[in-house]
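Lecture 7 notes: from sequence to structure.

We start with a single chain of 216 residues. Read the sequence below before looking at the structure.
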Amino acid sequence: MEIHKVIDVLMHLFERYRTYLIITVSTLLGAIGLMVYVYISNTQYNYASQQALSELLLEYDRAHASAELWNEVEIGAKTAYRQYGKASVAPYFLMMQAEALYQQHKQHDALALMEQSLASIAQTSSLYYMFALKLAQMQLAQEETAVHEKGLQALISLAHDEKNQQRDSALYQLAEYYHMHNEQEKAEKIRKELLALKPLYKDVMSPWISLMENHA
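Now the structure, written as tokens:
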């Protein structure tokens, strides 16, 4: 085929499919634009949520020194969760609100919110065991027998869960619980379990093992 005929065929094909090409390119560019917009929006959203958390943490620390500030922490955490409930740091807002409620002696609401916070975290998350331990501590502090027992069983489970990254803390607190309740045989058994974990902390010292060694 002569070269000019080839060119004519190509031009004909181009004219025939030009509209489709324009639509395809426009669609592709639109999709890329949307992806960029979503990425920027998500980045800004996550950054804003982390800023909110940083500010709330300052208020949280101040409240430990001045009890009258717990109401402000409660309001601030509740507001932050409404704004950034889909952010990766959202469970922290629930936990801090629960702590604020707990410090204001609103025990029932605090426990319910802490349970909601724990339920929002995947068990594979590094946060899960930290929040589970916090919930167990709150439950153990309750006078109601059923809630107290629930907290004790949760603490026992956490202390013997090999996947628990907070296991040293759970074992220490369980040993202290038995010691305070005059169950010395159980306390000694848990103490030995905690000290047996020491080889696992060659690179990073466990403060809970150190505390237990000092108690020995």
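Residues 132-216 form one domain. Keep this in mind for problem set 3.
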